[in-house]
Design brief:
- The protein has about 350 residues and is of the alpha+beta class.
- About 25% of the residues lie in helices and about 25% in strands.
- A ten-stranded mixed sheet has the order 14-3-13-10-12-11-15-2-1-16.
- β7 and β8 form a beta hairpin.
- The chain starts with about 20 loop residues before the first strand and ends with a strand.
- Residues about 1-20 have low confidence and may be disordered.
């Protein structure tokens, strides 16, 4: 996972602030709003999908215990302690998704916009130079050809996606690398130009503005000089989610992207999200992204396709995130813990 929510970032620019020294507070499960009402088995199934990749001995022990067969809620309550990590920044929850694009393995008709493999010299060109001069023509780098350049741009923002081929079937692609140029928010550019207010900017707003403004729309996308290259991800069946940072498929509404400087990959994470659609749910920290910085910063995976994208794009809410830590590991945070 990369960039994602930063595409229409605005307030997310605060995520670039230097990492603060965190404080820790141990909680009880009774302190978690809605804990008793969750589907703990669904969360345990997701935990099991990646806990075997956690190298720490304490986590390996819990993973082995989970594999022996446990009643889900009692497993979490018996072996974990909820820990609230505070770095001085307000909580921020956003959403992400896996796009679906229409494409072809050959160029022709509406399919004119390539998804490129990683070239030998990825840092040589900016986005404008790549797209304006067809800089990689003749190098056999095209994985597929897409029918919409705006879809290509947002696929680069999300970092992975599925392509519905004109001949039938699907092709899944994932992040392979980038050109090393600085990422710039096109949403912020629209605000700076006075076209929209910060609260008005979303993925759909950006899409519609670009498509309605011809050359000016293309110029807006070139504000972001960063350009992403892809690889085919044939090992993941189309019915499963894309690969996250743990190189395992992520799960709709049970995977959360976190800042690994604060939260271990694979850890269960209790989400209490405010907003128009409040959400209290146990998820698993299986992903990250360049816009995900801070102890209380998280990106919720909403699934694949346009509907998931619209739902994800509406999320920009406060709340709190509580990490479930192995009991001994939680108490090892003493004497910095506030009980």
């Amino acid at each position: 996972m990369i960039l994602r929510a930063a595409a229409f970032g605005l307030s997310l620019l605060a995520a670039e602030n230097a990492m603060a020294q965190p404080s820790y507070q141990l909680l009880k499960f009774d302190d978690l709003s809605g804990w008793a009402d969750d589907d703990h088995q669904a969360a345990l199934d997701v935990f099991l999908s990646t806990c075997g990749d956690m190298r720490d001995a304490a986590w390996q022990g819990l993973c082995n215990a989970a594999r022996e067969g446990q009643e889900a809620r009692s497993f979490f309550e018996r072996f974990f302690t909820p820990v609230l990590i505070d770095d001085g920044q307000d909580a921020l929850f956003t959403g992400y998704f896996e796009p679906e694009l229409n494409g072809s393995l050959t160029r022709g008709g509406p399919y004119q916009y390539p998804l490129y493999r990683l070239p030998a010299n990825p840092g040589q060109y900016s986005r404008r130079e790549i797209e304006e001069t067809d800089a990689f023509d003749g190098q056999d780098l095209e994985i597929a050809w897409i029918d919409d350049p705006v879809d290509v741009f947002f696929l680069q923002v999300q970092g992975s996606g599925r392509v519905k081929l004109d001949t039938g079937g699907w092709l899944r692609v994932g992040y392979a690398g980038a050109n090393g140029r600085e990422y710039s928010s096109v949403g912020l550019a629209l605000v700076d130009r006075g076209i929209y207010k910060p609260h008005q900017v979303s993925a759909d707003v950006i899409r519609n503005w670009v498509r309605s403004n011809g050359a000016d729309g293309r110029e807006l996308l070139w504000v972001n000089e960063s350009f992403v290259f892809f690889r085919e991800v044939n090992e993941v069946p189309p019915e499963m989610g894309p690969l996250g940072a743990m190189n395992r498929s992520v799960t709709t509404m049970r995977t959360v992207a976190i800042d690994p400087a604060y939260v271990p990959y694979g850890a269960p994470v209790w989400i209490e999200k405010d907003g128009a659609d409040p959400l209290n749910r146990l998820m698993v920290a299986q992903d990250t992204g360049s816009a995900i910085r801070g102890a209380q910063r998280a990106d919720i995976f909403f699934g694949t396709g346009d509907e998931a994208g619209r739902a994800a794009g509406r999320i920009k809410d406060g709340g709190r995130m509580v990490v479930l830590m192995p009991i001994q590991a939680a108490y090892a945070l003493l004497p910095d813990v506030v009980e």
